Amino acid sequence: MKRLIGPFKEIITMSEAPLKGALAEDALGLISKGGILIEDDLIVKVGAFSDLKNEANSIDRIKGDHVLMAGLIDSHTHICFGGSRAGDYAQRVAGKTYQEILKNGGGIHDSVSKTRAASEEDLTDLVKARSKRHLEEGVTTIEVKSGYGLSVAEELKMLHAIQSANEKVPADLISTCLAAHVCPKEFDNHETYLEHIATKLFPELKTKNLTNRIDIFTEDGAFDPILSAKYLTQAKADGFDLTVHADQFTPGGTAVAISAGAVSADHLEAISDADIALLAASETVATVLPGASLGLGMHYSPARKLLDAGCCLAIATDWNPGSAPMGDLLIQTALIGSAEKLSISECIASITFRAAKALNLSDRGRIKLGQLADLIAFPVSDHREIFYQQGKIKPNKIWKRGVQVVG
């Protein structure tokens, strides 16, 4: 049964936009007075609404002017956590650095204590609530990391909670194991801890099918490039996709990510021009996290440079309890877009199909034949209003796999 949805004042298809490099306005692939034909959970045709009416078995008519686009994809979040880090915020605005707070037992260590104290059921409910908010703001695919457990049992608890939440919310939750977030207090040696995780946790992840993604924080105060490379080599040999927290405060992580064949290198605030060139020549996605820049009061990652060099750029929220508690993908994209002079096409690509590539997904992020019918509609008549309003306009109609879940 084919169902037609429309008409829409504009449809942003992004159907032919390339995965890498800068994008002009024409990359949006706009269709005026358009409709979209859906069968089951897939898009089967998009075009002028009047041309598609005869092909439909049913029609869902949209009242009023709306602009339709693919559902948003947030490819980097930490929304599985217990407690709050408002205390960290107070210290940061009083002048303490992220690294100073971490060394004094705050930061990630504080979230580890609070997350360990939470039950699996508590964490499931928290992930559900945060995912629901994200979905209502148009995010239909959400990456969710572990990393506040830092032991085999606690990391498994987090990943089970993410899996349980995924079964109870319409959005797709893509789990990532970030057991290599920092070295826990129980271990004196970073290398010993990484070996422990690789030998004891990796097999459990495979046996229980909890994730196919491994992440590591390559940074001063976390894990150095040599240890990171060794850990990622083992993860890749075990069949995991890789991603890396890279170059947030100091360079070195991007080179590790590229050498390991990671699907993405995330943060990049401290990336060098030489590593930008290496990233552009690779298949690794450059994921920038404006929420962390806002939360830490530091400069944005060089998104304009990355695009002009030929990188595949994704924008994600880094939604976490410490450095990026806001978690609003549209607002953050509007802000970095203004600061870094990103075109509307580049902004939309970075939170749809290019973000999908950062998750090694090719079945979503565009409006074209064969893609998942993950769709969001904004109550505006001109697509430029979405970012002109700095993310304050939210979609009022949302479809996940062809089913309307909002509106």
TrEMBL record:
- Recorded E.C. number(s)? 3.5.2.7
**Keywords tagged on the record:** Histidine metabolism, Hydrolase, Iron, Metal-binding, Zinc
This protein's pathway = Amino-acid degradation
Identification of the protein by name: Imidazolonepropionase
MF terms (GO), sorted A to Z: imidazolonepropionase activity
Gene3D superfamilies on file: Metal-dependent hydrolases (3.20.20.140), Urease, subunit C, domain 1 (2.30.40.10)
Top-rank taxon, per record: Bacteria
Which InterPro entries would you find in this protein's record? Amidohydro-rel, HutI, Metal-dep_hydrolase_composite, Metal_Hydrolase
Q: Which residues form the Amidohydrolase-related domain?
A: 67-404
Q: Which Pfam families does the record match to this protein?
A: Amidohydro_1 (PF01979)
Instruction: Answer whether the UniProt record assigns the keyword Endoplasmic reticulum to this protein.
Output: no
Q: Where do the coiled-coil regions begin and end?
A: none
